[in-house]
Structures are given as structure tokens and as C-alpha cells.
Amino acid sequence: MSSPLLEIEGLSGSFRSPNGALTPVLHDVSFAVPRGTVTAIVGETGSGKSLTALSILGIQPPTFQRSAGRILFDGRDLLTLKPEEMRGIRGRRISIVFQDARAALNPVFTVGRQLADVHRLHHGGSASRAMKRTIEALRAVSIPEPERRARQYPHEFSGGMAQRAMIALAALVCEPELLILDEPTTGLDVTIQAAIMELIGDLVRERGLTACLITHDLGVVAETCDRVVVMNAGRVVETGTTEAIFTRPRQDYTRRLLAASQLGETPEMIEA
Amino acid sequence: MTRAPLAWSMRIGLCILGAYVALALISLVWTPYDPLSPGVGDSFLPPSVEFPLGTDRLGSDVLSRLMAGTQYNLGIALVAVILALVIGSALGVVAGYYGGATDIAISRSVEIFQAFPGVLFAMLVVKAVGPGVLNIILVLSFIGIPDYARLARAEVQSRRNWPYAEAARMVGNRSWQVAFRHLLPNSMGPLLAFTSINAAFVSLVTASLGFLGLGLNPNTPEWGNMIARGQDGVMTGEWWVSFFPGLAILGMTGAFYLLGDALADLADPRRRR
Amino acid sequence: MRAEPYVVLRTSGLTKLYPVGGSRRLVALSGVDIDLAEGETLALVGESGSGKSTFARCALRLVEPSDGDVLINGRSIRSLGALGLAELYGEVQMVFQDPNASLNPRMTVRQVVHEPLRLHLRMPFAKREKRAIELMEMVGLTPAHLDRYPHELSGGQRQRVGIARALAAEPNIVILDEPTASLDVSVRGQMLELLKRLQAELKLAYLFISHDLQVVRHMADRVAVMYLGGIVESGRTEDVFARPLHPYTRALLSAAPVARWGVKRQRLRLAGEIPSPIDPPDACRLVGRCPMQQPACTTRRPPLIDAGGGHAVACPVVLA
Fold this sequence. Notes:
heterotrimer; B: 273 residues; mainly alpha; MetI-like fold; 10 helices; 73% helix; C: 320 residues; alpha/beta; Rossmann fold; 4-stranded antiparallel β-sheet; 11 helices; globular
């Protein structure tokens, strides 16, 4: 059994307000993301799930002050790395997909150019080769007519298509070992959401990626994820396999969250 | 409920402005000498214990005139700015909320007017209708109206389809009530922030008109007039006659600029803590 | 003889077109007919672009419909002037999706709740204050909340204020526009229970607009599924969920995420994405995406066909 790709140990920290007061927001957050799995971090508003994810990449808001903890990626503590070492990891070995894909794309460049630029940055090579790889990546995430789509601007993409392009960028163009997905389907329609989640599951399995899915929606988790980390108010409440969390939750908070997510539906109602 | 501490710049602005207000109020009941009468001392006396800011060519006390002038310069600025704010915002709210032909009529008039240089316009009008406090106030507020109208229009237009505007209609407000009671108060931030810039501009133009002899009666102790009266002395060494009113204008203009966002803060409950 | 339930809100042929340059038109809503009976909950379900929010706004004339009529408590609102509309909003109210955007940030909760009491019911201050306290308790807040500003409340508390505001005017119809979409799941359940309790106490008719099938199933007596500006299927909630007929409804139901372990469903996939609503052809709107498409589907737009028991579907293919 190899060591987990990512291990967060005792991460704690506070937000500093302009007048210097500290509000604790993360309390001794610890969990591991084993290689080749999709691990979900589930929590409601204010649970600290996004802050934890952003901390992995070192892109947490500047008002956040860490007081303790380590983030071990492939055995190295990311928090001790120099900025230039971190740049070598960010986007190359760890990449992220944000919630609002269209906001994450630059509106004045074509989608293809943006992906190709990142490809050249990471892998070098000629512009035409990068564009060819970009089009292959767009095709791999089931964007129809990828040659034409690559020449379009972000505003010409629907929310679902833009999210596919972002996944192509983060998962295929960057070729990372760890893919962080921060609420990738929030705000998308359910039919689109289902397709995106399927795509994520396929990519992880086919390419041997490790993924960390940040979400508030337990419904999204059940079908796609291998492991679940439940967070509440800056603490890890419970971790376990998806099956264990859904069928044998040990903590009261997990049980309440599950009950609220199921809204009194019985299994028979769903099978019907 | 307490407010967040104001930035230092705003505190300084408020202090300076407060000092001017105090000066204006004091001058209503007391000045060291009669500001209007010449010959209270010899002409061109340099600053001394007897005349702290010296005397001018006619032997009037510069300090007394400066104090009395605060009434004019501060009063004109405040009244002109408030008038422009009220009229301009009202026009902007109507244009922004109702849109269509109303909007086109108001917006085009405002644009045509804005094509004129404001100071030139003020000079022409004052020349035509004659000097006087009321005329100057009206002209200066008129110059400010287009800016307020455009700001208010943009703010209201961006908010008119917000859910809280719809909600306001649903609870029984008529459209003018939605526009003026719900949308306008939420648009006040940028408008109030602009009043500080506008007030600074108005103070400068008031003084400029006075300096050019287009403002009030030349004997009125308005700061622009006072600079004009002392301009010969600048060359011959009697610097104090023009210098102190100039400093007063600089201080007031600066104070208005410094106020900036403080005004916007005062109107917004979200910025209170 | 069985008495027909009294219809409090009926739309017939409600249509909204937006000109988009030249002679082209964006069809946001095309000929929507619904009946909402006294005291019942009718859910309008659809994804973004389905026209469900436009429908709510046209039914209240917050947005002027291009065609069609709306009867509210038996009265046509089509020709109402500004005064008549203001009066109408005493009978039908709305709870908005985002309580953060629908509360005026500069008004305290007291001002928010007093406004409809003052404008609709013309109550004097003392009576308003008494009623405001009652309303606060009705929605699970305390009188102390009256002095707060919206930014000082949590999302759930804000939505409760939105509900109190809607109920203050004493309407018999409430349009709920995605009332739980911006809330955490743990708050969502409480909010739905509150809405159910208020409905029973005050005999309210709810038009419940949502994209969340789980919430709809929990709340609604009847469901109407919307796609690209029109209703594709309607019926009693249990019928539609147990026996969805329209391919779009099936795709929607099979895509809904389920927070439960080991649920493996047959997923019905639609090809591509929602097509442009600009100048759509006279054909079934699902053409090009539908796995059951027949040549006849492209020749005209199928009307809603009765499938028995009040269940209707705009697809002749599934009924054939």
C-alpha cells in the first residue's frame, strides 16, 4: 500500500480582520487523499472546505493566517516550499477547476488559445502542436466540433461547455497528479451536472488521476466518489468510504446532513 | 451600533471643514475689525500682533475679511452642491427608472449641456444676468446637475430589475415610490462621494469668478475678490493680502477632497459595525 | 355532484417574446396554460432557460406579457392600471430566490415588514407593530430581529423575513421562486416545513418554481415540467414521478443526484444542450436531443395530450 498522494495534518488558522482581530476558521483539519481515488470534501457554508482546498494550492485569501499544520503532497510539505518551488507544482502537479468556469476564462482570448498557451507553458513545443493537443483535449471531454469550438470566445460557451473546457485544461492539458474540483457543478442544470460528474469519474479512472471534489451536495458525492470527508464549522466531522458515510454514519452531524439531503425520500421512491 | 473608524484622511477633512464652519459662525457675531470698513489701519501693514494677517491696500483688516468671507465661500459651495445633488439625482432617477422617451429626453439634454465648458458657461451667465449670491449659486449648481444626473441614472438603471425593486412593487409601492424610496437611497454612495469633488470644484470656481471681477460686489470680502485686490502687492512684496485668502481656498478645496468616501459611508448601514 | 375546486390563478396562452434585433424574436414563454386551485401547491419545474421565472413575472405583470391572459381570483389582470396592480399585489405575493438580493440593504426588518402593512392594509403604526411581531413569530423569528438589517441575518433568517413580507399583505396566492435554492441543505428542510405549515394555517395556494426535483416532490400536489418556454408534461406529483412520460421529464428525473448509497439508475441521456430560443421552428422543442425522435416530431409542435387521470404530456410518441 503506497502512501496517500495528499495528506493534510492538523491544519488550523484564522481570518484576520482589518483591526487585527482573529476569527478562527480551521481547527485541526486532517485527512488523506489516497492515490487514484476521488475524495469528496463535503460541507455547508462556512465549513472551511473551500479554504482547505485553496490552501493546498497556496491560493488562500491573504487575510487567512495559518497557525499550525502540514500539507504533505507526495511526501513533501507544501507549506515549507519557496514561492518558485510552489509555482512548479501549481498547475503542473496539482491543478484546480473552479465553480464559475466562464469567470475563470479570459474573455478576450479564444478558448483554444488559452488552453494552448497553458500547454506550451507546461510542455513546450510549437504553437501548432499545442493547438492540436488542445483540440484533442476538448474532444476528450466530449465538446462537439472541437476545432470550431477552439476558435470561439468564452462568452460563446454555455456554462456546461465552459466547465468541460476547464476540465480539459485542468485535467488533460496540465496533466496533473492531483485534480482539485471546487464545486464544479454548482449552478449548472441537473442534466448537465450529471454529465459533468460522469466525465470527471471517467477521466479519473482512465488516466489514473487523483481527485479532490469540494461540494455542498451529498447527491453528487454518492455516485462518483470513493471517499468522503465531512466538514462542519472548520472541523473534520467524519471521514470514511462513501459507502460507510452513507450507510453507517457515526457522527450525529453526518446523519443530520444526510437526512436533510434526502428530504424524507425513501429508497423505493427513488428506484421507482 | 458603532461605526467603523474613519480613515485619517477623512478625519482631517472633517476637522478642517469643521474649522471653516466655526469660523463662519463666529464671523456672524464677531470679527476683530469691521470687515467692510476701509482704513481700520494703514494700507499694506504686514502681519503683526495688532493685525495678525496684515491689512490690504484700503487699510482693511485681512483676518476680519477672511473670516467674513467664509460665509460666502462656504455657503455658496454648500448650497450650490445640495441644489445640484437634489435636482440632478431626481432627473437621473427618473431617466434611469422609466427609460424610453423620458430617458432619451433627459440624457440628451444633459449631454448637450455637458459639451459646454462649465467655467466658461458660468462666466457668460454671470456676465449676462449680473452678479449676486443667488445668481452664482444657481449657475454653479446648474453646472453640477449633469454629473449627478448621469451618476444617478447609471446607478438606478443597474438596480431597477433587481429583486428588491420587484419586491418593493409587490408590497404595494407605486413606481415613483420604488424609484425614489428604494432605488435612490441605494444609489446614494457614489452620489455623495461625488459631492466632495463637486464641492471642491464649486469653491474654486466661486473664487475664480470673484478674482475675475465677475462675482460679487468687489468690496464683498469673498476670497476671490480678496486675492484680486491683493494681486498688485504680490509683485511688490505685500504678499499677505493675496496669500491668506489663497490659503483659505486651498484648505477648503483640500478638505472637500479629503472627505471623499466618508460621506458615502455615512449613508450605508452595511459599512457600520 | 362533485364541486370543482376554485381556481385562484389561471393563465391562458401566456406568451413572452423579446425582440433581439431585426425581426428575430426570443421566445421566452410560448402559450402557457396553468390552473392553480385554492390551497394547493403546483410546482413549475425546469432548468435554466425553461421560462419558469419569466412565467412568474408575466403572471404578476412585473414583466409585461406579449400575449395571453391571467385571471387572479377570477379577475383578469390584463388591463389593470398602476393602481389596480398595486391592489392586486395584496392578493398574490412572491417569495424571491435570493433573499439577499430581494431585501433592500438599507431597510431594517421592521421597515421591510411594515411596508406592506402600511401600503396594502393601511394600518396605523401601533397596529403595524403588533402585526409585525405576530408575523415574526409566525415565520420562526423573534421581535428582536425587527431591529436588524439584512446583512446582520443568516441566509435562512433572511428568507424568513422574505416570507413574512409576502404574508403581511394577507394574500391567498404565493408564488415561491426557488425559495430554497440559495440555502444550505440543513436550512432547506426547515424552510420547506415552515412553508407547509403556513400553507395549512393560512389556506394559501402556492405556485412553487424550482429546478430541484427532490424539493418539488416533497412540496407539490401537482407538477408542470417546463422546457424552452412551454409545458411538456403535467400531472399529479406522484404520477409524474412514478410514471414520467415525456422523454425530457425522464431525462431530468434520471439525472437528479440522489444522496443515497448504491442507487444505480438507468440514465436517459439527451444529446447536446438546450437549443437557442431565438425563432424556434414549429416542431417539438426536443428535436435533435431526443432518443425517441420520429419524423413527425419535426413537422409541428405537439400540444399537451391527456394521458388519463389529469396526467398530460406533449409527446404523441410516448402515448402511441
